[in-house]
């Protein structure tokens, strides 16, 4: 019974992580009202940074995003033409620029590993036992690693950026939906890895002690 519960928990967590990472990776690719709710940070309630560009609120209240550009940098001094951008964005331009560039690549790799994880865990027997459980364990660990590093880099860059904007008198905030997706995806992969480890341990115990077959 416990092993069945852990199996269900494993699949649900991986599916949830895949969904969360998909939302992160498609932000800024469309002007759809739902997708535009996913952004890393916002300034003056008008400009939003996403994975693939900057989105801006227009006169009718709709959100319009720039043409999708892979690894779009978080560089306000270059993203905008107005002159009152806080000086820190110029003096520390490379810090923000490369944090987001690296995070972009890590999110893509994390999404790839999450999809592979889902395929592996739903195949009968692929995640059971020591040897057969190795692919699933590897995929889960790699997804957790890449998603966590990417989420950390984005969090550092945008929290720092929001603080700089706020100190300069701008209204700025992080994108709640995006941060929930980033960290939920990483957290679900951690839970999935724990569930897989416990389930495999129970499976090994069953093989050594057949009387525990009902566990």
TrEMBL record:
GO terms for biological process: cortical actin cytoskeleton organization; endocytosis; fungal-type cell wall organization; septin cytoskeleton organization. One of its GO terms (cellular component) is cell cortex. Keywords: Membrane, Signal, Transmembrane, Transmembrane helix. The chain crosses the membrane at residues 102-126, 138-157, 177-198. It comes from Metschnikowia aff. pulcherrima. The gene is MPUL0D04650. This is SUR7/PalI family protein. Residues 1-20 form the signal peptide. The keyword Transmembrane helix applies. InterPro entries: Neuro_actylchol_rec, SUR7/Rim9-like_fungi.
């Amino acid at each position: 019974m416990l092993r069945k519960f852990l199996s269900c928990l494993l699949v649900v967590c991986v599916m949830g992580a895949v969904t969360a990472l998909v939302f992160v990776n498609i932000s800024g690719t469309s002007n759809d009202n739902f997708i535009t709710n996913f952004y890393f940070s916002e300034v003056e309630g008008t400009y939003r940074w996403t994975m693939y560009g900057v989105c801006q609120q227009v006169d009718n209240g709709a959100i319009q995003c720039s043409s999708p550009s892979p690894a779009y940098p978080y560089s306000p001094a270059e993203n905008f033409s107005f002159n009152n951008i806080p000086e820190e964005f110029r003096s520390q331009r490379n810090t923000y620029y490369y944090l987001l560039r690296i995070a972009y690549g890590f999110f893509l790799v994390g999404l790839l590993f999450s999809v592979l994880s889902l395929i592996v865990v739903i195949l009968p027997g692929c995640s059971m036992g020591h040897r057969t459980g190795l692919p699933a364990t590897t995929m889960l660990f790699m997804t957790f690693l890449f998603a966590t590093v990417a989420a950390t880099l984005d969090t550092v860059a945008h929290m720092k950026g929001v603080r700089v904007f706020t100190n300069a008198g701008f209204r700025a905030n992080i994108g709640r939906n995006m941060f929930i997706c980033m960290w939920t995806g990483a957290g679900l992969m951690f839970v999935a890895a724990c569930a897989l480890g416990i389930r495999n341990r129970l499976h090994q115990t069953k093989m050594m002690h057949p009387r525990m077959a009902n566990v």
